């Protein structure tokens, strides 16, 4: 899984915060590593640097191999909180997406128990 971090001109990220974001994304989404080809992290500051509350926006785009991309967005007052919120939403989306793929309708081999 390749992780790409982008930000608008209102958010300045050096190598250290970028590496921390990449590590957090890698760790959080590690159980889906074999299914994902790429994760794009896009950060923007809607208030152009002014502190107005939840003005930092994180958009995650996860690209599952052979499927349509999944998107999750979160707004927060810090970059870390926005990334964390978007990752939490992405986990639920990917759990749902891959859970549906693993569960075959009419498959009675599991005795009515969904595989995990």
Q: Largest sheet, if any?
A: 4 strands, mixed
- The SS-based structural class is alpha+beta
Uncertain residue segments: 108-116
Strand proportion, as a percent range, falls in 25-35%
The whole-angstrom Rg is 17 Å
Strand and helix order? EHEEEH
Specify the number of helices: 2
Instruction: Give average pLDDT, whole number.
Output: 86
As a percent range, the share of helical residues equals: 25-40%
Q: What is the CA–CA distance across the termini?
A: 22 Å
Shape: globular
Count of beta strands: 4
Strand order of the largest sheet: 1-2-3-4
Topology, pairings included?
Blueprint: E1 2-7, H1 15-28, E2 36-45, E3 56-64, E4 70-76, H2 79-102
Parallel strand pairs: 1-2
Antiparallel strand pairs: 2-3, 3-4
Helix pairs in contact: 1-2
Task: Give an overview in words.
With 116 residues, the chain is α+β, with helices and mostly antiparallel strands. Strands 1-2-3-4 form a 4-stranded mixed sheet, covered by helices on one side. Helix 1 (15-28) runs parallel beside helix 2. The two termini are 22 Å apart. The protein has 2 helices and 4 strands; from the N terminus they run E-H-E-E-E-H.
